[in-house]
Design a protein that fits this description.
The structure is a homotrimer. By secondary structure, chain A is mainly α. Helices cover about 70% and strands about 0% of the residues of chain A. Chain A has one domain: Ammonium transporter AmtB like domains (Ammonium transporter fold, Orthogonal Bundle). The first copy, chain A, is built from 15 helices and two strands. In chain A, a hairpin with a 3-residue loop joins strand 1 and strand 2. The first copy, chain A, is globular and about 60 Å long. Chains in contact: A-B, A-C, B-C.
């Protein structure tokens, strides 16, 4: 191979390592935003997300996405129990784990660990890989339509977000989340510092996610992707904070989710928009996420970390924003070929697929095993009942 | 472009990503060293440091530093609302955020959030960029004098440290920091583990800061910069611990600040000194930081995390140490052209500029808005009064 | 130098930075798994591990490993107080610190800080460097025999693990670890979230450790090493969890140690085995670590974090697994030259050397200074008695 190829591979490996580090980012956001009596359970789910994800993606997930023979642009077939093709596997497996991990936070504090373990192979090994085949395999039906999703606002984040939506619908709200009038109650998280560290780690890892999706370091302007990513996250964080001040004081949860919203929003278009476009995408992401979180909460959707809004709804916005801000073909800037049709088809098909398949699989698991712990177990906390331990053995806690 | 350029750009992007990760490092040091009733406030300040910093540096900070037309070597003009030149923006914006974040820790636990928000655009967008124009733009008056500051002991750390000094003078000491006789009291931090994690994260990110400042990976010995950085930090950590034992037991706060002192100390000369020089610079940094922290505390300067000593005073030492240990022109080693004059001019001008402008801006903000919260708010904690929440919703805390 | 060399050096520097970040990983595992009254002490030991390690490795450790003149393949001589050769020093010093840090966790909660400080220069500066001379210097007697240890299951992890074994034997079990019948008692850790974050950080840094050990980015398939590393860690995590369920509920401590076991297990063979081999190595590592931890605990060895099992015993398995799964010469796959003899010699000599020299040095320190704190100090906690502080000044703790 030529030196150029080795330089490209070096960057993909480094970027994959950065994306892998998003796993503890999710873990910290989820434990920080929830109560300490369920922290060990969240730790266990996050370790299994990556571990079960890596094994199932090796066994069959990669093969369904990139296995050589495409079955009508819908899925691939081949390369099961993969040997070789390491560079593609390594970068993709960390993405697969990300999609799975998004679900974990939304359904936290009331989901049975064994049932969750059954769901993981489906999302890492089937649901997510098939969407990647549609978009990133070079053989998929969505990419044929002209659909653009550079780093995965749709492929990764909408998949995770809509699977999470199915999850919270089936498992139902946590005890105490709504009062007898159905009014949502605040359930304080165990550590906003852990949550903030998690968001900063995700932001850090996101440079691997977005910039790494160039899948190359040569003949590409990596820095421009890092800059659009930075500007959108920054703008999302700022607007979410100011929007949160409309109904009160500058809110830390909204600010943190605003940064994530800006990151999800720019993920589809990070290589296709200019800096001004990135700032605007982020600004709008920060507004969307606050209203979406408040709206879903009022509708009875109890999302413990805001994952559906951050990843699902802002994922939609990210995919659609490419149609508006894409420099070469966008509406506002140069008026080339309209991306509105392919992006809308992508939004509809990915959300329907992720939601529908997750709903089906989770319903089957619910019927067979029960997806939710008992009332007593939920009140006692999952750490004690599911894992026989406590997370903070040394501290006096309230819950 | 040639492959060499892409390899260089790849390294600069990776280094910039590492420097960005210093943000949670600062956040953890600041929350760990202070009380839990103010942790959310610190989280919010750190998120806004990077977010507001990124937007203002894009809007006008970069233009004042590197905008093309130099106004007498004092500032540049142009490239506002930057498009293009991504590689320079990305590496510089993470530096700008670092300079801003240093202030946040020093004035923690009593500064009004809204007032702090007003200060950020000045330091990220004006005060810091102008100093970079003096030294790193290739057009600045200080670099013309022969001033050397490879990675920013002066440009970044002195700027942050002297802005912090102005801040703590204006905002005054925390309630309870001094008894009625003016004797300083110890205010225990909420988590030394978080503080230590923060320092390790800063140390990790510092490799991006120092080694990345080569702005190249080709025709440069990156590893030698990593080694001088490592040795100085290690030496600073060790001597600070032993110096702390003169008046008691091995002190964790001093040891952690000793590592940071060694890092700040080597930042100016990391590419200009040999390994022995690096060890000596670190040794002396570790001594300086302990005496400086104790001295300032006795003088009535209440610096919640030791930021003025670590970044300001050790920044001076770092800049000056180049005149002593520089291999090509230093006094002790080969006796080339003396750097004493340019380094002293740099120390005086950067400290005066950062202190003076920050003092002026903060005084204006203080008159207009008030920089300090009320006594009741300070006692109740900024998290409750400024953000309507608590950081550790699940834990029983003392404050 | 040619561009290829700069690309290689760039990767080694990045990999070294990743390995350095394992230091806070160890710190978090150790503080998370132990009681909060000893957290500052652990922080201090970890900072000194890296700081004292960096200085002693610069002063004489590197010279004993790679100093030019080999004394009979046993140790080298030269390059003391190193100048130049930065790329080799930087990558090796972070490995040396890792070997030292392993010991810190095992003997936590009862070891005198001053005594520990005396031990560090020996392991970083003598015990570890001499083993690296045997295996990685190109002049050593073990590599002459055909011994293979790509990234250090033996050279780093067995050295740390067997030094830790000597440490826990000499220092004895913690008060309260065994009841009057000698039955082991559970001592709950202060934060499983910190422990889990530590393991994820170690996993992240391990990519630098294993993939970086290629010492090159060109003419090598870096991604394949990242993949074997990922698969083994994932498999280890899963099997350790399931094995822990034989006698109870899915255990978080075992799951976390299972991931580390899989990482240690694959370290020797990560570049020599295929993906299926990596999965099998990890599966077996996860089984070994659970039984080893339980066995050692029942035998009266009180290892506060499971370091002897994770690093020592799984290190043996990692070294031996190369003889089974090596693609070019392994038994199961292609039946080339048997590696059984060199690997067994390596296991015996490294474990004997690390255990024997550590035992001797620690015994001498024990006689001279006393290795263990007093009963009163141990009960009060090392933070108060050794460092005059508490780790969590703001929280109400139980111990």
């Amino acid at each position: 191979m030529e030196l150029t190829t080795y330089v490209n591979n070096l960057w993909i490996v480094v970027a994959g390592i950065l994306v892998m580090f998003m796993q503890p980012g999710f873990m910290l956001v989820e434990t920080g935003f929830t109560r300490s009596k369920n922290s060990v359970n969240i730790v266990m789910k996050n370790f299994m997300d990556f571990s079960v994800g890596a094994i199932t993606y090796w066994a069959f997930g990669f093969g369904l996405a990139y296995g050589g023979i495409s079955v009508g642009g819908f899925l691939a077939y081949g390369s099961f129990f993969l040997e070789g093709d390491s560079i593609n596997y390594f970068f993709q497996v960390v993405f697969a784990a990300t999609a799975a991990t998004i679900v974990s936070g939304a359904v936290a504090e009331r989901t049975k660990f064994s049932a969750y373990l059954f769901f993981q192979p489906f999302i890492c090994g089937v649901i997510y890989p098939i969407v990647t085949h549609w978009v990133w395999s070079g053989q998929g039906w969505l990419s044929e339509l002209g659909f653009i999703d550079f780093a995965g606002s749709g492929v990764v984040h909408m998949v995770g977000g809509f699977a999470a939506l199915a999850g919270i619908q089936i498992v139902g709200p946590r005890i105490g989340k709504y009062d007898e009038d159905g009014k949502p109650q605040n359930i304080p998280g165990s550590s906003m510092v852990a949550g903030a560290l998690g968001v900063f780690i995700l932001w850090f890892g996101w440079y691997g996610f977005n910039v790494g999706s160039a899948l190359s370091a040569v003949d590409v302007d990596l820095a421009s992707i890092a800059v659009t990513t930075t500007l959108s996250a920054a703008a999302g964080s700022i607007t979410a904070m100011y929007v949160s001040m409309i109904s009160g004081k500058p809110n830390v949860g909204m600010t943190l989710n605003g940064a994530l919203a800006g990151l999800v929003g720019i993920t589809a278009g990070c290589a296709n928009v200019n800096n001004l476009g990135a700032v605007l995408i982020g600004l709008i992401s920060g507004v969307i996420v606050v209203y979406s979180i408040n709206f879903l909460e009022r509708q009875g959707f109890d999302d413990a970390v805001g994952a559906v809004s951050v990843h699902g709804i802002c994922g939609i916005w990210g995919v659609f924003s490419v149609a508006i801000f894409d420099i070469s073909s966008g509406l506002l800037f140069t008026g080339g070929t309209s991306l509105i049709f392919p992006q809308l088809i992508g939004i509809l098909s990915i959300s329907a697929w992720a939601y529908g398949t997750s709903y089906f699989v989770l319903k089957v698991i619910d019927s067979a095993l029960g997806l939710r712990v008992t009332v007593e177990e939920e009140i006692a906390g999952l750490d004690a009942t599911e894992h026989g331990t406590i997370a903070y053995g040394d501290f006096i806690t309230k819950s």
